[in-house]
Every structure is written in C-alpha cells, then in structure tokens.
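name: query_chain
kind: protein
chains: 1
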Amino acid sequence: MPRLIPESPTFQTTSEELVWERLRDSLGPDDVLLANLRLTDEEKDVEADLVVLMPEVGILVLEVKGGSVHVTPDEADGHAWWIQRRGAHRRITPVDQVRTAKHALKRYVEQHPDGGLARRVGWGHGLVTPYSAFAPDFTVPELPRWALHDKDDLSALADRARDNAHALLHGQRPPTHDDVEAIADILTGRFAAPYDVNAESDDRAAEFDRLTMEQATILRVTRLLPRVEVRGGAGSGKTVLALQQAKELTRGGQGRPAQRVALLCYSIGLAEHLKRQVATWDRRHRPAFVGTFHAFGQQWRAADGDRSDSQFWEERLPAEMAELAAALPDGKKYDAVIVDEAQDFADSWWTPVLRSLRDEEEGGLFVYSDENQRIFARFGRPPVALVPLVLDHNLRNTRQIHESFGPLAPSRMYSRGGDGPVVRFVESTLDEAIGAADDEVDRLLDAGWEPRNIALLTTGHRHPIQVERTAFHDQEGYWGTYWDDDVFYGHVLGCKGLERRAVVLCLNEDGARDRARERMYVGMSRATDELVVVGDPETVRRVAGDEVARRLGVC
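structure:
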C-alpha cells in the first residue's frame, strides 16, 4: 500500500473515492497518494483531485469526472467535453482544469525554499472517467488516449498511471525517493512549525490586558470618591488600574476638570516600569509626576541619603519633605496622589504626601495595596479614612501558578488567568541553590523561552550576576536592564509590581528571617506563565506551610 495523505480523506463524490481506492490498493509501498489537494497562488485557486508521487517514475496529477462524460464536435474549438449527472447536462473543461492544477503545483514546489532547482522533476496529468468508456483509438490533441483512463482501464490503473507519468516527463528527470519525500512535505505543508511558548504567552498577556480593562470599570466607582484604597492580591491588576486612573484623572472629561496628578511607588524597578508606560501616552494624559517617594522629594530638592540608613528614610527625609511640601506654591501642589504598592510606605511618609495636595482635607488620595506583600520591616497606613474596594480575581497568573501560592494569599481569590505548565519544584541544598537555579534558566531557554521573558529571583543573597550588574550600572542603571533582551537576575525585595513570563525562584536562605513567608509569596507570584521553584523541601514547609509544599509536589 502507498503512503496516503490524508490517510482517510473525505470525498465530495463517489467517483473520486472509487478512483482513490483503486490506486490505494494497487500502487507500490514507495509511492505517495495525495487526495483533495488545494492550492492558492497569485493567479487563482486550484484543486487537484488526486496526485500520485512515484519515485524513479514521475508525478501525476489526476482529474476525476464521474457521471456520463462524452465529447462532441464543436465549430469553434474542434471538440467539446460534456458531462451529464443527475439530469443536468453541462459543458466542462477537464483537461484545462488538470493542466492548470499541474502547473500551479509544479510552480509552487519549484519556488518553495525547500524545493528549488533541485526539485525540478517531471510532472504529468491525466483524466479518469470511472463510469464512462472511450474507444481504444479515441484521441484529442490535448489528451492522448494513454492519459485518459476510463471505466475499462480501472483494473490496471496503477500501471497506466506509471506509463502516463513517465510519458509526460518531457525531458525532465523522474523524482528520486528523496524528491518524493520533500515534495510530499511541500504540498502538504508538513514542515516543522515548533510550539512556541512565547506565542502562547503573548496570547495570555493579551487576555490579561483585556480582563484588566474590563475590570477598570471599578474606576467609575471612584469618580465621586476622593479617597479610596484598592486592595487586591498578586495578579489582580492593581498596577494597571493605578496607571489607568492616573491617566483618567489627568485628562479629565465627562464633566470633570483635568487634574494635576502624582503617581508614586517605593521601588526603583516599579517606578521605571510606570515611567515607561506613561511615556507611551499622549502628553496631555501624562501625570505631572511619576516616580519613587524619594524622587518625589528630590523634585523639591530634598536631601539624598544612604539606602542602608533607616533613620534617614523613616525620620529625617519624610520630616524634611513635609516641610518642603507645606511651603510649595499652589501651582506646584497636586489635586490627587496615587500610590501603588502602598504597603511599602512607612507611617511617616504619608505626611508629606498629604501636604503635597492643594486640599489636604478633600484632595484625591488613591491607594493600591496588598498587605501580604509587606516584606519590609516597616508599617504604615494613611492617617485618613479611605473607602475600601476589593479585587478578588487573579487575572495575570496561570491557574497552575495561582493555585501554587494560593494558600499564601491574604484572602480567597479566583483565577481567571487560563491554563499553563505545571509549576515545578527542583530540590536543592541551600549552598547549591544558585547553581541549580542557573540550570533551570538554561532549561527554559532550551524550551524556547526568549531571554527577555525569563527572570531568576533570589530570596536570600543576590545572584552574582545581579551584584555584577549593579556594581557596573549603579541602582538606577541596573533597573534599566530589566527591559533589556536578556535574562533578568533580581531579588524578590525589588520586584513587587513587576513580573516575567517565566520565573525561576531560588530559595537561597533558610527562611529564618522575618517576613520570609511574604517574600516567598511575592517571588512565586512574579511568574505569569511558567514557574520553577528551586530550594530545600524543609525550607518550603517551614516558610510556606504543608499545603503550599503539597501543591509544589514537595515529598
């Protein structure tokens, strides 16, 4: 039996099926029989009923015509082909059809990148009339009798097909076995189009954007509420909503005046992300300020300080900023301040934020927070009443990732992020965790992930590459590399509000440090599509609990 493509074709007529069955049962094992082959080129759409590929013989394109087929004289053309089927009598041009299909297929193969000159072999064409008979001496100029196969020829159809194909080589060579394999692949489009994890991830990202914009209707509720806290777990779209709110308040409209808006956060990485998003907007929609709390004060020439000096950050800087904000002229103050990842703000930071408002009592204050991502040793809440709104849907992470860190979330959330790969846990000792995590990055790259979609995050000491990049660029420059086309090496402390599609979370500390549970929650939730956790099983149990360990597959 020949190779059949497809193995069980569906035919529009019984005549095509009959001819296919005769060829199927009589062609050789090295031959290939293709059915219902359609092609569109720059000239027209063509269809070949059957194509037979025969190594060392030739290629034959066959047109099948059922019903009663006959030929009559014609004054204009010399003769005319007719078909009568189910009471209908109409003129046909079967030889033109099959010749057009043959030339289109031949041209397609020869122009294909994997065809080319090396695939220039002999092609023939023929007509099969399984229910009509023609005299042995029948002939018309465009179709020799040996290229016409009637109902009496069916018993020897395979042999006739070989003779037909060989006779129409027209000086071109017959195809080799390799030619036949290559041409079959070209005609059926069976070239390797490997699964692309990035493409599937792009699809999920687009769905996340759609769901988040759908969820943005929550902002309509805030139009008459000047002071609101939006609470939501990881993946709920808080940062996207904060950005959208900053845009809407800035541009005004729908009966509201345009406002002078500040969009704040704590971390340098998130601030850079916010700036890059805002830079893509119409200038009229960009907030007056976007950046970190420290940069908020620097615009008023507040002092700089050592990042390790907690007294500076929690006492001296906010006190100085409060004085500077109070002294601002009205034109330099803000109508509204939006704070993303507000759980990172200390108590003392809220005073300069409120004093920066034109109206400290009624001015807009919009806070986006997730208490379970409070991973710094400071606590603070705005000293004013806020109307709470809760986001309880995870839109960003796949269901598998969401379920893996679900027990760490502060409240029940519902997954809408779609399905993805199973979360993997890779067992490692504390000392070997970095090396094992590097191996997992290599595996992700081998699986097809683009480097720009991968991050390796540590919970303990920083990865050597992160240390190296920070020393080379300084903190600001290091965070600029987050958007480079390369694997990002970071620490969970700096990645709140940010994510990568594929994340290797390296648990390279024993979990004895304060707020280790929150760090693990942040780290696991940074992955939108694929998550690999590397570490010691006992660390997972101690930090995250037995339920998370079970979901990660920790024995």
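note: The mean pLDDT is 90.
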